[in-house]
Amino acid sequence: MRLPQFLYNWQKKLHKMFEKSSENSLTSSGSIQEIAGRLAEEQQRLRQLEATSSPKERTLFVLGSKCVGKTMAINKFFDRDEQTMRPTLALEYSYGRRIGSGRSAQVLNVWELGSLDNAEQLLEVPMRTHGLQQLSAFIMVDLSQPQRVWTDLECAYRGLRDTAQRMMQSATPEQREYLERRALERMKHVKQDVSTLELLPFPLVIVGGKYDIFMDFEPALKKHICRCLRSMAHLVGGAVLFYSHKLPKLAKVLRDTISHLGFGSPTNPFRAHITDYNEALSIWFGTDTWSQIGIGESSLPSVERIGATLSVEVPQLQLEKQKQQLPQNPAKDVGFSESIIDEMRAQKDDELAGIMRDVLLRGKFETVQG
Fold first, then answer.
1. Which among 207, 205, 232 is positioned nearest to 306, based on CA atoms?
2. In whole angstroms, what separates CA 50 from the centre of its chain?
3. Which helix (H) or strand (E) holds 354?
4. How far apart are CA 60 and CA 73, in angstroms?
5. How many whole angstroms separate alpha carbon 79 and alpha carbon 66?
6. Where does the sequence pass through the membrane (predicted)?
7. Which helix (H) or strand (E) holds 13?
8. How far, in Å, CA of 84 to CA of 335, rounded?
9. Count of Cβ atoms closer than 10 Å to residue 37 Cβ
10. Does residue 336 carry a pLDDT above 50?
């Protein structure tokens, strides 16, 4: 039995109990005690049901533009020291635990993809490791670089979509039915648009990072970017949130959203529904429509059309290889220093250098003798 139905049945029971006590006019002091006892029993059953029905493990996958603040957002959520941050080169994993009201531990797996370049195989690791049933994804795009917004968004989305489609093909009919039903439930308030959407089988939040810079851009530019992000989120059944670690209010909403998708609370972390492009967008799952975005039935978008429309108004750069931004040898990057490992590496480097010298001298000696 699902929790909302349980609460509904509980309400009916309480109503009948109060009706019965009213008929008896509470003639005995035991009637009130009886109601209180039943309430305590129902509360205990509620806690037990929550403990057994809530998922014990969930997974968040964070990916998107480079240097947009993915690591910082994760560290803020886990209350980590920002001084320990270092650039994410490939795929990083972390986890957190929380004791729920049922006293059972909940585990949150968090994966962060550092770069979208040549990341096809890395994209599959979090999704195939933990499955799609309890997966949620955050695509963070850099609003301070509007010429890269669509390129990064499309690359991240297509990686998630293609992997999810392959996994859905190998899933059991029950698993597919469960994921499809959940996707439809997230869009239950906009049923009129469901037939035109390309829903992902897991929650996706499109996060516009560095909003503190974007907020000062020209209104026309902001309008095109916001329309693109809203269209994409609505098409795939996702949510949109603008974020900046420099704006505490927006940082708190993102933190609460991670908590909601990772641990199941609060019910809706988006405290306001904001669609005005002159403000920070805040649009929860299933609360936007094509008509609100300003798209008519005759021009319903696809992923390709959304990208083409934005590219006309805001020319987009292609995803470039960013190897030149990485150090020649990441092992020598001070941001990745580990004293014990570095000492062992230095020792092995010295030994290797000695072997190379011996080989070189031996080669010269054999040449002279020959």
1. 232
2. 24
3. helix 339-369
4. 12
5. 22
6. none
7. helix 3-23
8. 8
9. 11
10. yes
Question: Which residues does residue 95 pair with via DSSP β-bridges, in sequence order?
Answer: 109
Mean pLDDT, residues 147-155 taken together: 96
34-70: pLDDT as tens digits: 766 777 776 666 555 544 455 678 999 999 999 999 9
CA distances from 82 to 72, 73, 221, 250, 356 (A): 7, 10, 32, 18, 42
User: Rounded to two decimals, what is the model's pTM?
Assistant: 0.73
Q: Which of 110, 63, 113, 69 is nearest to 88 (CA)?
A: 113
Is the per-residue pLDDT at 84 higher than 60?
Answer: no
Does residue 309 sit in helix, strand or coil? helix
What pLDDT was estimated at residue 342? Answer: 73
Peptide bond into 219 cis (omega under 30): no
Quote the distance between the C-alpha of residue 4 and its chain's center.
Answer: 25
State whether residue 339 is helix, strand or coil. Answer: helix
Q: 338 vs 75, 332, 334, 366, CA distance in Å?
A: 20, 10, 9, 42
C-alpha–C-alpha distance, residues 194 and 316, integer Å: 29
CA gap 32, 307 in Å, rounded: 64
Find the mean pLDDT for residues 335-350: 73
CA neighbours closer than 13 Å in the CB half-sphere of residue 273: 8
pLDDT in tens, 89-110: 789 999 998 876 656 788 999 9
Question: What is the amino acid identity at position 298?
Answer: S
Helix (H) or strand (E) holding 243: none
For tokens 């190897």, the residue is 323
Give the Cα separation of 186 and 188 in Å (integer).
6
Radius of gyration of the chain (CA): 27
Residues β-bridged to residue 93: 111
Q: Tell me if 74 sits within 8 A of 110, measured CB to CB.
A: yes
Go through 140-150 and write b for each residue having 16 or more CB atoms within 10 A of its CB, e for each that does not. bbbbbbbebbb
Q: Which of 102, 94, 92, 112 is nearest to 56 (CA)?
A: 102
